[in-house]
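Pasting as-is:
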Amino acid sequence: MTETVRARKLRYVTVGSLPLRSLLLALFFVFGVLCAYVASGRCGDETSNALRRYLDRYLALNGERTLTGGVVTQTLVCYLRAPVLAFLLGFASIGVVALPLLMAAQGFVLAFSLFCFALTLGREEFLLLPALFTLRLLFVVPCTFLLGIAALDKSFSLAVLTLGGSGKRVRPVAYGAAYWYRFAVCCVCLWIGCAMELWLIPRLL
């Protein structure tokens, strides 16, 4: 009987709670993408011309570009800022609100850049978009999402603990090895993605 109850509880947590939190983060990410689409459509010719000048200047200097500490730091920050913030929000009850907003902001920033460059490049140079954005979409978005799911679970537990568990006895929130292991694996993946971008994209362009 006890085993049956435990199995039901485990099934409830696995099938009920976690997918709902995953769906919540996914919906906020999609909301950010939709907002980016609307905002990019309102950008005028001045923004498109500025992006065109920036891209032409980048391509002109690409052959002479040297890998400096500043370039590496900027690229690394772009890769790590959202995933690391998602991980850290798991240590605060405010993460219940901040994590969905972070996913919306992540979707907006990536999609806004993508849509603006797509409008600027046009069909003739549309193939530049995969070279510019594929690596970040493949590494940053999944890592942010995976860390955000785990952090939202911990943050929700902290919020329940802070509110007193609605009269129930609540156990302290424990950050097991799996939480840290996931963060370490994501960091390694992000470092690999950053290195690939620094090495591969200049050669593709």
